[in-house]
Amino acid sequence: MDFIFDVGLALAGLLLLVWGAEGFVRGAAGLARHLGVSTLVVGLTVVSLGTSTPELLVNLAAQYQGTPAMAFGNVVGSNVANIGLVLGLSALLLPLGVHSRVLRREFPVLVGATVVLLLMVLDGRLGGVDGVLLTLGLVAYAVWTVRSARAGAEDPFLAEASEEVPTELSGGRAAIWIAVGLAGLVAGSRLLVASAADIAVYFGLSDLVIGLTVVAFGTSLPELAASLAAVAKREDDLVVGNVVGSCLLNILLVLGLPAMLGGLPAGSEAVWRDLPVLLALTLVLGPIFLNGPRGSYHINRLEGALLLAAYAGYIGWVFGLFAPGQTA
User: Fold this and answer.
1) Are 287 and 98 in contact (CB under 8 A)?
2) How far apart are CA 1 and CA 17, in angstroms?
3) pTM score of the predicted model
């Protein structure tokens, strides 16, 4: 009965996270537009940040509740899910190509951030100095993104991102949505972390494994929902842009801030198993960013199925399904 209760709490936490993220984005975007921030800037910053707020709140809750390994696993697992699950499922429904010059410039930044993260944790830990460097990288990335966007007129990704900005709200209504959304995020993150920790104990799994799998899947749901909505509108640049932006924010912000507040243990499994898998999946995406300006290369349905299979295989590996008794 305790296990069933914990599963119920985890599901309630996931629902609160998804609902809270949506409310927070609506309020923050509405407030930014009310204050005169351009639709383009709102679409590239506030809306992009919104899909990463579940990961951020979960990681802060994990740090506060004494399960920092879960926080590190959440980010690595979320990025693996973004590429394998979100892009894979989206490509099954709509072949994905990149026509945006902005996204072509962002891909090397994502590869570089992933490599830097791997180098930072070779000692098994993401320390306070590492967190400061990642957060400074976030500031530089945000400034560079906005400047590049303003210079990139008629870019398809920028046009699609601007269309996703929620309707403008009055200052009071925006503030209410922000408060309600944050409340849902805080409550959902605490429920999910506490119940996930209990589930880990029940199955004899480590906090890292639960973070890489159950928690990461749950915090990736907003990206999945946003990408499927973009697929329905046939906005393939937006699908890819959501994933690239979310992965970058996860590394620079969602890991950077908790690391500054107290450091995060990575563990040898993350260094030699999980981060190399993430880097390999990231590099696999290279052809859709490095082809010609017409975006002739696409992730087709077969390749989408292979990404999904890779994600499923990775989850099986983490749970030790291919080597019984070797679960991390």
Assistant:
1) no
2) 24
3) 0.85
